[in-house]
């Protein structure tokens, strides 16, 4: 199996990247209007397989997850009335959440000789906030704490919902919701915390590119839930920009990835602003730009759809031996920005926070200062 996002969290409470703390406490009350599970989007004709590019990362195959419980006669989402507001262009100011493992380390190690380099080249940059533990009772308040923090500063937060059932196909980042019914409810609660300001949503890394580990029926059910998730989030906050998983340039051929993305709702303006790629991986920005544009061309959909690229660790490109776990010789990539100057490339983001281990130089998902220092210098 080809791995896209390496290890971002361990099972249970989120430790990878920036993990949003429960700042609100208690049971959440606010909920968005109910949106029912959508039926599966119509399957596309099978695209003849193309020769796969050499993958940059491999793992031993894991057993497929247990099939999700089938739903009886899912109802379509109620039709919207009135014209929906169009998503506005995001500001160029990204939000740095004040709580993360790397910031905790910087505050606690002022005398460490590595601290100035790690602080200036990694910790001072904005990065995504991951929500990777399945905690329905507190997810709204935790998301709201991040989005309201960004709104107070006039900056744009980047949030990562990561709770799809069977995530990571049983690998190191396994976990998530127990089934798709529970996931849909969690998404409703997540969306209720998005507020009304600008926010970028990186929807479920690996959920599309890694779907080959699922049966055809499980894959169709997952894609229906992802399409629904995009609609729910954009209904809850029309200024949210929602991006879907495109894997990376060393994984699936663009036509194959685009076919799956279309079934997951990524070509619809009601649920999507485009795609993301290279999460936790190392492929060069130029390779990802070419790949993402090819996927978008094959995907179709509105001309407004764009792509965001994780540049957190791609400064030296992918290692030639295909190593995916904390490979040596890598370095941080382009600084995060919502203004790339390139057509159809909406942002460079640090989705994976540099220095948080894939599991080889430290425990999976934990900040490892020696690794961060190697990346930063």
Automatic annotation (TrEMBL):
Pfam families: Glyco_hydro_6 (PF01341)
Enzyme class: hydrolase
UniProt-listed Gene3D superfamilies: 1, 4-beta cellobiohydrolase (3.20.20.40)
Region called Disordered, residue ranges: 20-94
GO MF terms, alphabetically ordered: hydrolase activity
Keyword field: Carbohydrate metabolism, Cellulose degradation, Glycosidase, Hydrolase, Polysaccharide degradation
E.C. number(s) listed in UniProt: 3.2.1.-
InterPro entries named in the record: Beta_cellobiohydrolase, Beta_cellobiohydrolase_sf
Family as reported in the entry's similarity comment: Belongs to the glycosyl hydrolase family 6.
Name assigned to this protein: Glucanase
Source organism (scientific name): Streptomyces viridiviolaceus
């Amino acid at each position: 199996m080809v791995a896209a996002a390496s290890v971002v969290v361990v099972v249970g409470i989120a430790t990878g990247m920036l993990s949003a703390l429960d700042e609100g406490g208690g049971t959440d009350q606010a909920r968005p209007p109910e949106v029912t599970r959508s039926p599966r989007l119509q399957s596309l004709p099978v695209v003849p397989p193309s020769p796969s590019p050499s993958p940059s990362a491999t793992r031993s195959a894991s057993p497929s997850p247990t099939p999700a419980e089938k739903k009886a006669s899912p109802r379509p989402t109620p039709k919207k009335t009135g014209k929906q507001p169009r998503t506005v262009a995001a500001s160029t100011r990204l939000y740095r959440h004040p709580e993360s493992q790397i910031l905790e380390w910087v505050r606690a190690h002022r005398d460490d000789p590595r601290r100035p380099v790690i602080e200036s080249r990694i910790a001072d940059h904005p990065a995504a906030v991951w929500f990777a533990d399945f905690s329905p009772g507190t997810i709204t308040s935790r998301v709201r704490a991040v989005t309201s923090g960004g709104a107070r500063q006039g900056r744009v937060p980047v949030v990562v919902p990561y709770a799809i059932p069977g995530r990571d196909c049983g690998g190191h980042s396994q976990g998530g919701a127990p089934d798709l019914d529970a996931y849909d409810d969690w998404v409703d609660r997540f969306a209720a915390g998005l507020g009304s300001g600008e926010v970028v949503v990186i929807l479920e890394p690996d959920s599309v590119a890694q779907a080959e580990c699922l049966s055809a029926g499980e894959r169709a059910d997952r894609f229906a839930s992802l399409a629904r998730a995009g609609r729910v989030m954009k209904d809850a906050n029309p200024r949210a920009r929602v991006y879907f998983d495109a894997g990376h340039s060393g994984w699936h051929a663009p036509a194959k990835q685009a076919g799956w993305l279309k079934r997951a709702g990524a070509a619809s303006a009601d649920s999507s602003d485009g795609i993301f790629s290279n999460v936790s991986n190392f492929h060069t920005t130029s390779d990802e730009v070419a790949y993402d544009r090819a996927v978008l061309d094959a995907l179709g959909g509105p001309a407004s759809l764009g792509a965001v690229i994780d540049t957190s660790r791609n400064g030296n490109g992918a290692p030639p031996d295909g190593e995916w776990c904390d490979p040596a010789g890598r370095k941080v990539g382009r600084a995060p920005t919502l203004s790339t100057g390139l057509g159809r490339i909406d942002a460079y983001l640090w989705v994976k926070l540099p220095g948080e281990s894939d599991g080889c130089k430290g425990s999976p998902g934990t900040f490892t200062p020696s690794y961060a220092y190697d990346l930063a210098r």
